[in-house]
Amino acid sequence: MTRRKFTREFKIEAVRLVTDRGVAVAQAARDLDVAESVLRRWMRELTATPAVAFPGNGQMRSDLAEIVALKKEVARLRAERDILKKAAAFFAREVL
């Protein structure tokens, strides 16, 4: 089963169907052939950050991209710290 992809415009129109036209979420989800939870998530995303909602094509929102970059940096710094700890222990043994 392949994953379906929806355009940004489709998602915005689906949310407008519920918010502007007053159609029930369950009915709109059935009509659009999407899961109700997916439609509710689209509604949350659009109301939370309308300007950057649904970036599409595997692009992350700027705040999520920053979090990923920071996690990579933390992993790199921890690796460097562990190497320095091992080197310090090795040289401390040499002195004794």
Automatic annotation (TrEMBL):
GO BP field: DNA transposition
Cited InterPro entries: Homeodomain-like_sf (IPR009057), RD_transcriptional_regulator (IPR051839), Transposase_8 (IPR002514)
Keywords linked to the UniProt accession: Coiled coil
Coiled coil: 25-87
Superkingdom of the source species: Bacteria
GO MF: DNA binding; transposase activity
PANTHER family: PROTEIN DISTAL ANTENNA
Protein name: Transposase
Originating organism: Roseisalinus antarcticus
